Amino acid sequence: MAKLHIVNKSPFERSSLDSCLSKSTEGSTILLIEDAVVGALKGTVVADKLTAAIANKNVCVLGSDLNTRGFTEAEILDGIKTVDYAGFVDLVAEHSNVQSWL
């Protein structure tokens, strides 16, 4: 069964997102929250890695964290789904295995 991977650290300060991308399997869901949401932005050094992940993984970003940091949905990579808090709860409920990357 596919895991839910939650990443909360900026990919520009920590290697959590890289570790998550290398360990997560096809069909997994990756949720970017808190400072990790900046990794979802177009034109960053991690954009290619996330674009590749979108091919076989579900990648989501918490919209309120994106907005809190001054970004909009228009600035994130195509294929990344924006979820609200209810969507976050739904993702946790849908996955029996949740991994947080610190």
Detailed description of the structure:
The structure is a single chain. This protein has helices at 16-23, 47-54, 63-68, 85-94; strands at 4-7, 29-32, 58-62, 81-83, 98-101. It is built from four helices and five strands, in the order βαβαβαβαβ. With 102 residues, the chain is α/β, with parallel strands linked by helices. It has a five-stranded parallel beta sheet with strand order 4-3-2-1-5. The chain has a single domain, classed as Hypothetical Protein Ychn, Chain: A (3-Layer(aba) Sandwich), CATH 3.40.1260.
Write the layout of secondary structure elements.
Layout: E1 4-7, H1 16-23, E2 29-32, H2 47-54, E3 58-62, H3 63-68, E4 81-83, H4 85-94, E5 98-101
Parallel strand pairs: 1-2, 1-5, 2-3, 3-4
Overall mean pLDDT stands at 95
Order of helices and strands: EHEHEHEHE
> Any idea what the CATH superfamily is called?
DsrEFH-like
Distance between the termini: 22 Å
Strand order of the largest sheet: 4-3-2-1-5
Number of strands: 5
Features:
alpha/beta, 102 residues, 5-stranded parallel sheet, Hypothetical Protein Ychn, Chain: A
Describe the structure concisely:
The chain is of the alpha/beta class and 102 residues long. 31% of the residues lie in helices and 20% in strands.
